[in-house]
Structures are given as structure tokens and as C-alpha cells.
From TrEMBL:
Highest taxon in the source lineage: Bacteria
Keyword Transport: yes
Protein's name according to its UniProt entry: Extracellular solute-binding protein
Keyword Endoplasmic reticulum: no
UniProt cross-references to Pfam families, sorted A to Z: SBP_bac_1
Classification via SUPFAM superfamilies: Periplasmic binding protein-like II
Family membership noted in the UniProt record: Belongs to the bacterial solute-binding protein 1 family.
Keywords: Signal, Transport
């Protein structure tokens, strides 16, 4: 990712030269009136898509025998290189999903086509509120991302079998509950089962869960929307990390958390070696696929009985589909996308993923497990729209990319794991240094961009735990 923007800029120059040449030559027409068979190339970068996309494509091709869809399930590990090569060769597929680039990057470099015709106002109204907000599926008021999912959040899953075998009838809601019940589990099982586990070697998971838990005590943890700077040495982060270490030292957190990734942690959870698992919304689907259905799901525990946490409601590129700016088959692509609008979401729900871009409760389909609705409800309660600088000044995206390129090598997840393993003694000092280093790079990125100011990143009318609306943006009068 560090050299991605510069590579893309070079590729965009090459693309511009190619396009200039193409405009002077003959172009191949493939309107919907052509009786010849048309093949649409579709690159899929979403693991779950390997299950439901072949089903959808088979049904589509039966209804539209003139249009074929060539599905290529891109290897996630090598996908960035594949997309860069495709951009360089002016050979992006007609339709693609990717987590290698942001929507703003793809639009800025004129690599993707707007989809306003596919998503007129009345169609957008069928989707979860906020999906088509600026910076989510839209840029500068135009739709560019076909939204499939609506983001994600993190949960606590519990093993019903372990609780039943040990005669425990309650699930933790607070930090105190978690320690008390986990201690009981360890003692009653003679150490064969722990209370809590998570995949500590999955840095993205540790980083996200730690931030989510910290927002209860310090809603500005991670990024302070009011003042426009990054904050990591907050009470929320400090107390969350100290709590995790206390659980580890008292046999309430499985020591396997220090050495396993999310996949292995899930396997240990299924095996009953841990009773509570911290993981993302897709975990329910994976548990079901593994044949394990004796589980439930709740919010992450809070320090206080009435504690409130929140996560950012924001789509990323891998939450939807793009159409290449240079597709020669847009008429056929549009037919396929309209088919997906009507059929894709039900198929995804059948597969057990609840966080589709539409309201799952409005789709009549038999769910594979009842907790699908629980996962959806928790997401809607936890995830809220927050201020997005790109909405008011698109150039702030360049600052974000510069920050991403030059950010400190460590992150909040690595700090927690270092603290748990004893490699970090001065927790507060380490967090403060991380904040200082991060903000230094952030300030330099702002100063290096003449079209951006610190004010662009400040939202003095932000109220924690409440959705930030279009009216709030208008109130700023910038």
C-alpha cells in the first residue's frame, strides 16, 4: 500500500495515452441489439462470493443466454499486484471487487464508471440509510460502488455447550461479569476451558476490537472528530488494555490468544477450549459452515452496565462492485447488475451473511440460522455515520493517503499484544508516543497539501454516539 498511489498515478498517465489513441480509431460496438454472444469478465475478491456467485451466474445465464459471465475468484494475497497489472495493461475486468484501492482513488484516476442509471433515487431508497452517502457508495454526488454489504462490526460469540455442561446460565454483559464467569469456567472445567479467546495474531482484529471497546470510556479514541487529530493515549485505550492483561493473568483470557490467528481461535472455540470468542460479523456464517450451531452472539462487554460503544458506519471498496470505465459491454453489464439487485441479497442471506446493503428483515428468505437477525440488529445499533472530511473537501483524501504511506510502522493492535506479552512496560508512554508520531505525520501531510487545512478535519458539532447527518454538514457552512 505504501507505493500504491504513485504506481496508480503512473498507470493513469499510461491509460490516458492509450485512451487518446483509442478515440481516434474504430471502437467495437456491443449494444444489447447485437445477437452475438457477449462475455462479461467479473473478478471477485470476496471469499463468501465463491459460494453464492456461481449460483447467481448460472441462474442469470439461463435467463439471458446471450450474455455469459466469466467469474475469476482473485487470490486475496496477490490481488493488489493483479489489479495493478490490469490497470497498467488497460485490462481491468468489466466488473470487479477489490480491497486494494479506495473508491476515491479509483474515481480520481478515472478507472471506474458512474452507476447513476443503475441506482436512480427510487432504487437507492430500498437500501439501508447511509449506504449511498458521500465516501461510501458515492463520490461528488455520483454513485460508483454497487453496494453489496454495508460494512461490519465486532461481536462476542458464546459456546452454549460449554455453558450448559458447566451449569452456567448467564452470558457476560460487563467487564466484571466476564472476569467472574470466566474464572468460574476455568475452575469448573479444571482448566480444560477458558473464558475468553481472540485471534491475537490477526492484527486487524485486535486493532478493531480494542478501538471499539475503548469508545465506551473515550469516544474520541482513535480519531477525535471535534478537534481533528488522532488520540491513542486515552482513558478508553489504557483501561481496555489493562483489563485484557488482568484477564490473562487471572486465567480468564486463554493464553492461546497470544499465538493464534482468528481462524485457529475459532477452532478452539468450537472445540470448547474457550467459551467466549471476539470476532467479526462473518463469524456466524463460518461457524455454520463448520457444522457448529450451538452458539449465540451478543455485543462486546462494556465496563459499565449502561456503557455505550460505537463503530464507524462506512463502506470500504470490498463492500461492493465497480464497473470499469472502459468496459465495452455496459448494456450487458447493466442487465447483469439489475439482476443482482433483485437476487443477490437473498442468496447472500441464505449463505448466512446478514450485513447486506439492504435491510435483511425486508427480504423473504429462509435463514440458515436464527442468529442472522441478532447479528444484523447489533450492527445497526453499534454502527453510526461519523463526520467524513471527504464530503466537504475531496482533497482530504490525498492527505489520508499520504498519512497511510508514512504512518508509524506499529499500530494499536501491536501495542496491546506487546503489552500482554510483557514486551511493553510503559503502556501510557508507548501510547502517547504513538499518538505524537501519528499526529506529526498527519500534520506534515496537511501542510504539504495547499488545498487542505486543519479545519477540513474538524467537526465541532460532532456529538459522540449520535449519527452525523447531512444537516450537520450544512450547519458548518464551509
Amino acid at each position: 500500500m505504501k507505493k500504491k498511489l504513485w504506481l496508480l498515478l503512473g498507470f493513469s498517465i499510461l491509460i490516458g495515452i492509450i485512451l487518446t489513441g483509442c478515440q481516434s480509431g474504430d471502437s467495437k460496438s456491443s449494444g444489447s441489439g447485437d445477437s452475438d454472444e457477449i462475455t462479461i469478465r467479473y473478478w471477485n475478491n470476496v471469499a463468501a462470493g465463491r459460494t453464492y456467485l456461481p449460483i447467481l451466474i448460472d441462474e442469470f445465464e439461463k435467463e439471458n443466454p446471450r450474455i455469459k459471465v466469466d467469474l475469476n475468484n482473485v487470490n486475496v494475497e496477490s490481488s493488489e499486484a493483479e489489479y495493478q497489472a490490469a490497470i497498467s495493461d488497460d485490462n481491468l475486468p468489466d466488473i470487479f471487487s477489490t480491497d486494494s484501492f479506495t473508491i476515491n482513488e479509483l474515481v480520481e484516476l478515472n478507472l471506474v464508471r458512474e452507476l447513476n442509471d443503475v441506482f436512480p433515487k427510487e432504487v437507492r431508497a430500498e437500501y439501508t440509510e447511509g449506504v449511498f452517502d458521500e465516501g461510501n457508495a458515492s463520490v461528488n454526488g455520483d454513485v460508483y460502488l454497487f453496494p453489496v454489504y454495508k460494512g461490519g462490526t465486532y461481536y462476542m460469540f458464546y459456546n452454549k455447550n460449554v455453558l450448559a455442561d458447566l451449569g452456567i446460565e448467564r452470558v457476560p454483559e460487563t467487564w466484571a461479569d466476564m472476569k467472574e464467569i470466566s474464572t468460574e469456567i476455568y475452575e469448573l472445567s479444571n482448566g480444560s476451558s477458558y473464558g475468553l479467546i481472540f485471534g491475537g495474531q490477526s492484527g486487524w482484529l485486535v486493532r478493531a476490537v480494542t478501538q471499539l471497546m475503548s469508545t465506551e470510556l473515550s469516544p474520541e479514541s482513535g480519531y477525535d472528530y471535534e478537534n481533528g487529530d488522532y488520540k491513542y493515549a486515552t482513558e478508553g485505550y489504557i483501561e481496555t488494555m489493562k483489563y485484557m492483561k488482568d484477564l490473562l493473568e487471572n486465567n480468564s483470557l486463554s493464553p492461546s490468544s497470544l499465538e493464534t490467528d482468528s481462524t485457529v481461535a475459532r477452532e478452539l472455540f468450537i472445540a470448547g477450549q474457550a467459551t467466549f470468542l471476539l470476532d467479526g460479523n462473518w463469524t456466524g456464517q463460518l461457524l455454520h459452515e463448520d457444522g457448529f450451531n450451538d452458539w449465540g452472539v451478543v455485543k462486546l462487554p462494556t465496563k459499565n452496565p449502561d456503557g455505550q460503544q460505537y463503530g464507524e458506519f462506512r463502506l470500504v471498496s470490498n463492500d461492493g462492485l465497480y464497473v470499469s470505465q472502459n468496459t465495452e459491454h455496459f448494456d450487458e453489464v447493466k442487465i447483469f447488475l439489475e439482476f443482482l439487485q433483485e437476487n443477490m441479497y437473498a442468496e447472500i442471506l441464505k449463505d448466512g451473511e446478514p450485513l447486506i446493503a439492504k435491510d435483511a428483515a425486508e427480504i423473504d428468505v429462509e435463514l440458515p440460522f436464527e442468529e442472522v437477525n441478532d447479528i444484523s440488529d447489533i450492527f445497526l445499533d453499534m454502527s453510526i455515520p461519523v463526520p467524513n472530511p471527504v464530503v466537504l473537501n475531496p482533497d482530504t483524501q490525498d492527505v489520508r493517503l499520504e498519512l497511510q504511506k508514512n504512518a508509524p510502522d506499529t499500530d494499536i493492535g501491536a501495542i496491546l499484544m506487546g503489552y500482554l506479552t510483557g514486551q511493553i512496560d510503559d503502556l501510557e508512554g508507548t501510547l502517547q508516543k504513538f499518538s505524537d508520531d501519528y499526529n506529526e505525520v498527519f500534520s506534515e501531510a496537511i501542510e504539504n497539501n495547499e488545498n487542505v487545512s486543519r479545519e477540513d478535519f474538524q467537526f465541532p458539532n460532532w456529538t459522540p454516539y449520535e449519527p452525523y447527518t447531512s444537516e450537520d454538514y450544512e450547519e458548518l457552512d464551509r
